[in-house]
């Protein structure tokens, strides 16, 4: 099953999903001196093939941000606690190309049913797991993206991030899923993306780190994309 978000990511040499998160529970407001539309354009100029946005209230987000970002022409992932077909319809109507389904929140049977519903609406299901138990027996439909979340969303992003969950669950994730496999969340520096690439991930989702720190979102995204493009033969 072919969908816009999946295809853009599969085609990209530098598979960075650049996220806008208006506010981080750990760092605080992240868009104080800029706007959603301006940051989306910066990510696009840096060469990101896909965008993501957290639309939940605890990230200071809202649904209207999706269409502001979709105006770039890039496919947009909606990150929120989506638990029903109605939420998927709202996601599609807001202009998104992909929808987050969080295994930490949903039963496996519901994840699979919602992933199929999403595909029927031309939305890419972006299914996130954070533990071996969530992966066990998870058989996603063709066209779904599987992401390993490096953060525990139950601790509301107050952890320090890192790539350890991705490293620990990589082999198990590959054994249950034939499609794209993404390392999501907690990637703090371009070096983390290089490590994720060496582990074998097909793509990387970065939010907070692109919007915090000393450089513009454009410059920071360029650095992460350069890391995503690094040839890794020598490291293997
Ligand atoms: O800012 P980070 O560490 O790069 O992480 C982004 C993102 O994955 C995170 O915000 C997230 C992961 N799962 C979610 C579920 C809902 C909302 C947001 C999320």
TrEMBL record:
One of its GO terms (biological process) is L-tryptophan biosynthetic process. Its EC number is 4.1.1.48. It catalyses: 1-(2-carboxyphenylamino)-1-deoxy-D-ribulose 5-phosphate + H(+) = (1S,2R)-1-C-(indol-3-yl)glycerol 3-phosphate + CO2 + H2O. Gene3D superfamilies: Aldolase class I. GO terms for molecular function: indole-3-glycerol-phosphate synthase activity; phosphoribosylanthranilate isomerase activity. Keywords: Amino-acid biosynthesis, Aromatic amino acid biosynthesis, Decarboxylase, Lyase, Tryptophan biosynthesis. The keyword ATP-binding does not apply. Pathway: Amino-acid biosynthesis; L-tryptophan biosynthesis; L-tryptophan from chorismate: step 4/5. InterPro entries: Aldolase_TIM, Indole-3-glycerol_P_synth, Indole-3-glycerol_P_synth_dom, Indole-3-GlycerolPSynthase_CS, RibuloseP-bd_barrel. Residues 3-213 form the Indole-3-glycerol phosphate synthase domain. PANTHER family: INDOLE-3-GLYCEROL-PHOSPHATE SYNTHASE, TRYPTOPHAN BIOSYNTHESIS PROTEIN. This is indole-3-glycerol-phosphate synthase. It comes from Litoreibacter janthinus.
């Amino acid at each position: 099953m072919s969908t816009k978000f999946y295809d853009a990511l599969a085609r990209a040499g530098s598979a960075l999903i650049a996220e806008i998160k208006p506010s981080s529970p750990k760092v605080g407001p992240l868009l104080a001196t800029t706007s959603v539309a301006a940051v989306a354009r910066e990510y696009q100029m840096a060469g990101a093939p896909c965008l993501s946005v957290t639309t939940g209230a605890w990230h200071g987000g809202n649904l209207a941000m999706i269409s502001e970002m979709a105006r770039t022409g890039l496919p947009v992932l909606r990150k929120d606690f989506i638990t029903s077909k109605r939420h998927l319809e709202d996601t599609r109507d807001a202009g998104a190309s992909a929808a987050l389904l969080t295994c930490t929140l949903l039963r496996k049977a519901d994840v699979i049913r919602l992933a199929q519903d999403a595909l029927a609406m031309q939305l890419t299901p972006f299914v996130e797991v954070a533990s071996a138990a969530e992966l066990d027996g998870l058989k996603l439909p063709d066209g779904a993206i599987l992401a390993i979340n490096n953060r525990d969303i139950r601790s509301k992003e107050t952890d320090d991030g890192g790539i350890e969950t991705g490293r620990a669950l990589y082999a198990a994730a590959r054994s249950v899923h034939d499609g794209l496999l993404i390392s999501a969340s907690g990637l703090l520096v371009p070096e983390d993306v290089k490590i994720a690439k060496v582990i074998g991930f097909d793509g990387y989702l970065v939010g907070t780190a692109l919007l915090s720190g000393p450089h513009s979102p454009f410059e920071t995204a360029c650095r992460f994309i350069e890391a995503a493009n690094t040839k890794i033969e020598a490291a293997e």
